[in-house]
Amino acid sequence: MIAPSDRTPLPREFFDRPVLEVAPDLLGRLLVRTTPDGPIVLRLTEVEAYDGPNDPGSHAYRGRTARNGVMFGPPGHVYVYFTYGMWHCMNLVCGPEGQASGVLLRAGEIVEGAELARARRLSARNDKELAKGPARLAMALDVDRTLDGTDACAAGDTPIRVLTGTPTPPDQVRNGPRVGVAGAGGCGKAHPWRFWVADDPTVSPYRPHVPRRRRS
């Protein structure tokens, strides 16, 4: 059961901070996805920070485009992108408007609405795998590009909201290189901006970047 005190929505001011402050502070928070079939609640256990123009690994590094426009907007909004022609991934925009930083939501534990998540993640071998990885998380929560730009801090009904939950104690937070991010430009091991809850079984495995080889 989730305590009533854990269900307080996070204010916009929470997200209006440097991304490297927001990212670890999201661990243990509750993400509520309201669907036509009912709500799904996820406890965040793994995230990655992306620092816009200061970060070659960020979608916003080279400036504003039609795809990444939400990242340049007010904090507390949802940025959803489509990758590899197959998967959606979900981010929360941080920092002052115009700075384009965000946190990729990499993994979490479904604490309510697991039956709805299971229906979307039929290949999951158990509930720990329902949202183990950013694409799996988006699939389990029924997130796609139609939710790009959603205000997670809006008053009233909103399809996505972030609640206070139980913040992870600092001594239980780990950090390291981001998954699959190249080292070129100093955005690989030089930027250990992936944060996760220590020893949590829902955290995804680390995979280093592997350069693509051109076909001969």
TrEMBL record:
Keywords for the protein's UniProt record, in alphabetical order: DNA damage, DNA repair, Hydrolase
EC number(s) from the headed UniProt entry: 3.2.2.-
Uppermost EC category: hydrolase
Family the entry assigns: Belongs to the DNA glycosylase MPG family.
Family annotation (PANTHER family): DNA-3-METHYLADENINE GLYCOSYLASE
Protein name: Putative 3-methyladenine DNA glycosylase
Species in which this protein is naturally found: Streptomyces thermoalcalitolerans
